[in-house]
Amino acid sequence: MGRARSLTRFKKQIMLNGKMVDIDFHPVNAIEKQLYFVYIPVDNKPFRIHMQKTADGSFKIPMKERVPNNICELESALEEAIINS
Known about the structure:
Elements: E1 10-16, E2 19-27, E3 35-42, E4 45-53, E5 59-60, H1 69-72, H2 75-83
């Protein structure tokens, strides 16, 4: 049985407010995709959100009430980036 591939940080360009921005994804668990810290540039500073794996295997933003709406709208694109990483 081979060793599991270690998860690493990655970047993905995603459209935000009409322009492409580099978004950083940092896995919290090094072996299994469960929780990611996602850093999105807002006013030239990184704004951190979490993307958490749900019981059905999808990735969602928990506590959306603390996240700006324009970032919440990226949820499916962020999920796709994590799944395809």
